[in-house]
Every structure is written in C-alpha cells, then in structure tokens.
Sequence to fold (792 residues):
Amino acid sequence: MDISRAHRGRVLVIDDDSSLAEMLTIVLRNEGFEPRVCGNGALALSSVRDFRPDVVLLDLMLPGKDGTDVCHEIRAESGVPIIMLTAKSDTVDIVLGLEAGADDYVVKPFKPKELVARIRARLRTFDEAAPADVEIGDLVIDVAGHTVKRGDESLPLTPLEFDLLLCLARKPWQVFTREVLLEQVWGYRHAADTRLVNVHVQRLRSKVELDPENPTIVLTVRGVGYKAGEPARTP
Amino acid sequence: MVSSRSAVHAVGAPARWLVVGWRRSIQARVVMSVLALSAILAFLAGWVLLRQVTEGLLDSKQQAALTQAAAGIDTAQSNLDEAELSGSFDIGPVLNQLIEVLSPRDQSHVDYGVVVIGPMSAVRPQRATSWAPRSSAEIDIDRSLPADLVAKVKSQPGSWWAYSRVGFGGPTAQPTPGLVVGSQIQVTNTGQSYGLFYVFPLQEQQATLAVVVRALVAAGTILVVLLAFIAWVVTRQVVTPVRLARRIAERLAAGRLEERMHVRGEDDLARLAKSFNQMATNLQRQIYRLEELSRVQQRFVADVSHELRTPLTTVRMASEVLFEARAGFDAATQRSAELLHDQLDRFETLLTDLLEISRFDAGAASLELTEFDLRDLARQTAAAMRPVAERAGSELRLIVPAVACVLHADVRRVERIARNLISNAAQYGEGRPIDVTVRSDAESVSLLVRDRGVGLQPGEEALVFNRFWRADPARARTRGGTGLGLSIALEDTALHGGSLDAWGAPGRGSVFRCTLPRQPGHAVHPLPIALDQPGSPAELVGGPYAHYPQITSGGAR
Fold:
C-alpha cells in the first residue's frame, strides 16, 4: 500500500463512545488516513455531505438514531463504502445492517490491523489493466468510467456492487464460490461470513435484474455459488 | 417360505390391532371383563337351575312310576296266585295274560312297557311256553334291561329300580333315557320265580329339559350381552372425559398452553377437570415466568456484551499502539506493554467464550445451516491452526479420505469445534504430532483429533467437557486457553444432534471424536472411524478397548 494512496483515505467515524472514537482517530492517523469523528447519529448525514469521506465507520448502537437507519440514509444518497462496527455477533443484527446497505462489518473488540485491512480493502479499486467494456447479460460495464448501463439507462451501483458485478462479468465461464468472492471482492484471506455475499447479491439483483425473482444476470449455481448470465447480443 | 411368513403377518395384523386396542382402551378392557365374568356367572346359574329342574321333573316321575309299578307287581302276584288255585300248570298263557293286563290301556298314549323274564331258578319248567321273556309292545328287551338291575332282581326279593337307556318304540328306535323298575314274582307250587319289569321311557322329560336348556341359553346370552352393553355405557361416561383430558394434556404438552378442559356439573369428573385446569394454569404461569426470565437473561447478556466490548476495543487498540511502539520504551515498560497485549488476547477469548456459553444456557443458540464438505473445513481449520500447533512444537497432520464428506450443518459452529479440539490437542500435546482425521459413512461424518501428549487418567474422559476443568491444576494457568473450549465444542455438537467422545491413556495422549449427522437432528452412530484404523482409540490406548469406556456426551439431548 503506497503512501500516496493511503493519504487519499478520508474516514468518517460515527461513534458515540468518545474514548473509542479518539482511539480510532489515533490509530487511523498513524496508518495515514484522515479521520473525522461524528458523535451523534442525527448529525451523521450532514457530516457525510460535508466531509465527503472515502469510507464510513458506523457504530450500530447510537444515541439519537439507530445505526441501521443512519445506514439507510447514507445509502440513499451516496455509494460510499460503509463498514459497521458492531458489538453483537448475533445473526439478525448483522444481516439487518447488511441489508440496510453496509458493505462489511467488524465485530468488537477488533484488532487495529483487522480494521485497517478492512478499510484498505474498501478503498482498493478494481483497476487492473482492463478492457474498456465488459458485457454481462444485457448490461454493459464501462470499467474506466465506473458505470453500468442497460441500453442508455445508467444503473446506480455502489463501488462494492460494481466490483461484485465486474468480478462475475470478467469470467463469465467461471462459477464463483462465496469464499472466492469474499476473497476477490471483499479482500478476506481466510474463510469469513458468507452472508456478506448472499446479502449483497440480493441487493445487486434488486438493482440490475429486470425481475429479481428470476435472475438472468447473476445466476445462482445451487450448492456452489454464483456465475454471470450469458451476454445477450441484441443487434 | 416367504409366502408363509406373509401369511403369518396377515394373521398377525388383526391380532396386533386387538392387542393394541386392549392395551390402550380402558373401555374395551372393562367391557371384555364384564363379558367374560357375566358369561361365567350365567353359565353357573344356568347349570344350577338345570339341575334343580331335572331333579324336580325326575322325582315326580319316579314317584308315579314306582307307585304304578308296585301296584302292577301286586296285581301280577295275585293273578299268579289265582292261576295256581285254579290248578293251571301251564304258566305261559298266564304270563301272556298278565302282560296284557298290565300293558297300558290307552293304545294312543303308550308311556310305559312291561317285561317278564324267567324263570330265574335252575329248575327247568315242563313246557316250553313257560319260558320268558316276553313283553308288551314296543319294548326292545335286550337293550332295555340293565344287567346289574336284572342281577339284583334275580338274587333278592323286593322291588328295585334304576335309570338306564331303554329301547322303546320298536327295534329301530334310538335308545332313550328311561326308568326301569323290577321285582320277582313267585309261582309257589313250581317254586319258580320270574322277573317283572316296568320300563318308563323319559322322552317327555327329556323334551321338557331341552326346552328349558334352550330358554336358559337364550336368557343367559341376552343377559351377558345386556351386561356388556351396560358396562360399555357406564364406562363411556367415565372414559369420555378422561379421553378429553388426555387430548387436552397432549395439546398442552405440544405447547398450546392456553388449552383448558370444559367443566360441567360438580361430580368427580368436573372436579378432575377443575384440578386439571388449575394445574395447566399454574404450569402456564410458571413457563411464562421462566420464559420472561430467560428473555431478561438474554437481554442482559446482550447488554453486557455490548457494554464490555466497546471499552475493551478501546483498551485493545491502545495496547496495540503501545505494543507497536515498545522498542522505544525502557525494559520494564516494554515488558508491561507485552504483558498487557498478551493478556488482552486472553481476556477477549475468555469474554467471547463466556458470552457463547451464556447464549447456550439461555437457549438462544440456533443453527444456521449450509451444505459443505468436512474435508475442506478440516483443511482450512488446520491451515489456520497450524501456527498455534507449531508454537506448541507440534506437527499438525491431516488425514482426509478421497471421497467427499458433505454434511448439512452450521459451518461456523463446526469450524469452532475443529478449532477448539485442535487447540486443546496443541495445549496438551507435549510438542508431539497431532493427527486430524476425517471419516464418513452413509449417515454421519466424523472429525477425530488425536494428540500424543499428557493424555487422560481413567475417569477423566467424562470430566474434560466440564467448564473450566483442567487436567493438571498445578500447571493450568501456564497453558493458556480459557477452559471453556471443550464445553463449547460439546454444546455445538449437541446442537447438531451429534456426539462428542473422548478417550485417553496417561502419558500416551488422548483422542477426541466429534460425530455429526449429515442432516441435523438425525440419529448418529459414531462409526465412521473404525477402531482398527490408524489413529483409532484402540491403537492409542494400546490395550483392551473396554478398559477405556467411551463417554458419549450430548447425543441424547
């Protein structure tokens, strides 16, 4: 990770615990990020507009406003990567957070290295030597422009959803297991929570599929994982 | 062979149905008992009644017969005496006449017959016509006179009687029961004596008795059936509420706690229903209270979790910063930073394990099922745990079969089981190799972790799964670990309906085997790792398997 890119990272910490927030800023600054703290859920949205962060760290338990609500609000107007800080490893809360639009989550107490790795994974861009356009189903992915189009209509995807779609579209012949997707899209090197993949595939489908009940672009391969739909060449 | 077996089955089915009905239904039992007992009673009563009637009938007949016979015998003797006085020595015609006199007058109603035999003395009469026997019509002499009665009449004077079967109504008629009365009659001047017999057929009495028997059987049958019906009706009144109570109890047991019995009237059954309802209400209240308690407990655990974790995160990050910067500290501060760092790891693991255990205790643990291959999981976990094992000086060896070992289970829990077993093996493995083996059969898959370290004393197999139990208290703290790993592994296994077993021999190591059903909740038979295979308990303990009884835990929950 070179310094120049790390400096690019503006991180908004939304957490009511001032000690933890302060500690986070110390650690993040040490790692070369530019952190800012927002201690109240009600002010979160204006902070996002104001600060224009590259990553948001969001505590799920906030006074004033519930973390999942904040997540919904931010997601409504921005595709900024959101990483939840959660004290609960309970299934329901994590799934709710992911469905509200969070890209990833870290369970307290986490190690600073773990958190930094997650932030870096979200900041990393998917820009290897890439062909101009990739097709998947009836969609065209403009890799350089970071946009996805169906005909002339542009589909609003978050960076994570864009990465997920691109990952599948680049190798349409390959079936991706959830573990492989976790590694390639989320940057996990060890087995992690495959619910991340399930929830985000659902979210992606709700945006790109004409009929999310009968997907044609992101196909499920039962018992294995997911694969891209056939490119539809319409004259 | 097959067909005969199936025939037995075909016969067996209704019999089984009857047996089940008998065992299950009080009503059936009561009705059957009443039926059996009243049948016996009716039979006894009928038998006594029949005896009485028979005796009554025969007594009167006997009286009449003996009177008639006595009168007849007198007449015969006096007729003989008269014939003697008139000087007739040919006794034959006299006897014929005698028979005629004594025979029934009314030819349309012949209800007895007369037989004369003799002479009974050894002296031969002068004329052949003096020879008896002769009889009135319709008597079959050979079949009618019982031999012992004839002998008695011959040897002693006086009149004798006996019941016998008599031939009456011609030679073709069936023998019928009858009464035979006999006496000697004397011819004084020749000194000869003849036997005079009255034969009374008892056909009428027999017919009467047959009618009585028919009536008794009919009455008895009706009585028995009626009694059974009454028993059925009476037991129905008792059994119906009991059955109702059973149904309600079953529903209560199935968790429908608001079910109650309908109370009607004030009899015993109504009081039963009332008590039953009261019991149900109390149970319901108690269950709700416990549920509430459990909810509060869970809530508390969640809160504690959150409240503890946030400061812990801060502390941990601070310690991490200090630890990274320790090179610039003096020796004491440097060591302090290291200790802080290491112990925080332990504190965190302990907290995580405690929270997990409390979640199990609160019954809040649930399975999140996916399908996966245990071989992949073993490989991944072994790869993740290899650094831990190597720090303890142990080589971690993986033995997996060539075939897939796919199961439907909670992958995070199974991974935690594997991690806990391997970490336990590393802690107590004394730096010797650790084998991780995967096996499967049709219904279940097994993960076996074997170390060659301190092993287990006899009897410790049951204790290792206890919370905070340590094999060696003196050295306990230096080994690290929370003391909860195996307990959690046991709970995780139990949640899948699997079984977790331990074997060990002191100084030779121990084996932990986790067997999981391919489908959660299915029964497991911990077979996939046979005893004679490498890494098996038998090989490990090196002696008779029976000396180290298998401790199966969790499977029964």
